[in-house]
Amino acid sequence: xxxxxxxxxxxxxxxxxxxxxxxxxxxxxxxxxxxxxxxxxxxxxxxxxxxxxxxxxxxxxxxxxxxxxxxxxxxxxxxxxxxxxxxxxxxxxxxxxxxxxxxxxxxxxxxxxxxxxxxxxxxxxxxxxxxxxxxxxxxxxxxxxxxxxxxxxxxxxxxxxxxxxxxxxxxxxxxxxxxxxxxxxxxxxxxxxxxxxxxxxxxxxxxxxxxxxxxxxxxxxxxxxxxxxxxxxxxxxxxxxxxxxxxxxxxxxxxxxxxxxxxxxxxxxxxxxxxxxxxxxxxxxxxxxxxxxxxxxxxxxxxxxxxxxxxxxxxxxxxxxxxxxxxxxxxxxxxxxxxxxxxxxxxxxxxxxxxxxxxxxxxxxxxxxxxxxxxxxxxxxxxxxxxxxxxxxxxxxxxxxxxxxxxxxxxxxxxxxxxxxxxxxx
Length: 426
Ligand SMILES: *Cc1c(COP(=O)(O)O)cnc(C)c1O
Fold this sequence. Notes:
Elements: H1 27-39, H2 57-70, E1 74-78, H3 81-91, E2 99-103, H4 109-115, E3 120-124, H5 135-140, E4 146-152, H6 161-171, E5 174-178, E6 186-187, E7 190-191, E8 198-202, E9 215-219, H7 222-232, H8 235-242, H9 259-290, E10 296-297, E11 311-316, H10 318-321, H11 325-337, E12 341-342, H12 351-354, H13 383-392, E13 393-397, H14 405-420
Parallel strand pairs: 2-3, 2-4, 4-5, 5-8
Antiparallel strand pairs: 1-9, 6-7, 8-9, 10-11, 11-13, 12-13
Helix pairs in contact: 1-9, 2-9, 3-4, 3-7, 7-8, 9-14, 11-14
Bound molecules: pyridoxal-5'-phosphate (PLP).
Pyridoxal-5'-phosphate binds next to helix 3 and helix 4.
């Protein structure tokens, strides 16, 4: 490739056609949805102690398929994974003021699910190679008030669950796994999400498989399964007739997934393996194509794991390159990658935590008696995640694009062009 004027400065764009957005919904899903619509039975849930407390036929069938696919005793559908996270925190008998440790490098709902029960999110740092929560930082953040850990399998690979579960054993903590971005990936031969006390997946439109909105909780624990089902469906109205003795957090919601979504989910689940294979093949080609670009690091998959590439994560050695990330992104966007590349979040930097204003205007729960100590959300508490956020992380959105060979090659060419002509950015 030759010296060429970057598109940022008026040169020709590398990618002239936008990448085709990808749609995994096909005629199988259309047929499945049509069948439900024609039956008129769009949801069969009853919020009282009745056989229909557990939902209709498609909900039950989808849950059975999920339990089989993920190899767990219980799969429980919910209307979003955000709902799933809320139910999971409630199910582990959390008390107001209990602390839950989670990575700052994740989606905001992880932390608000904790706040939902008036528990306190405590942010841990991440491993710079996997971007998942760092077990060393977990242990450094444990206090007498810590009750649980929420591990997040970010971008497509599992957090280091063996280490996390052994910390949990040592301190008697519960572990929730947010595997929204890594369904079907493996960790030491086991399916990601299944090693925690409660795990689960998102079925939101942006995720590997979807039903528009939806989520799946998984657990091997009968008691948690029952509590999750209760919180999903108006617990307070049901516990009396059901004879449930443990009334802790038996505040129920309507987190129920409909019959149409479940019918679509059954079809989507059948496609998960091939969707993952596809994405792994694309990532392999991108790895090859980006080899040798100075100061650009392609994803690291930890030993014994597989990656499902919700995001294709890259890192920049800014010192080596000598150009700010924002400038590099601008140049890549101008070449045609607009909307496909970007940074990622640090949840602790959101206004809700920086200003400690959540419920009402007076700083509840942090300012109240239920909070056992001063919680530190200052910049500096998660140096690895902060540096990635501010300076060095570059994510390539993969999940919504199937990517043809032409598209892959043009993406690689855009990177190469910017790298070869990087002096123009100085
Ligand atoms: C998408 C996502 C969620 C939320 O899932 P929804 O189904 O959209 O509510 C939570 N955590 C992570 C890591 C996610 O990527």
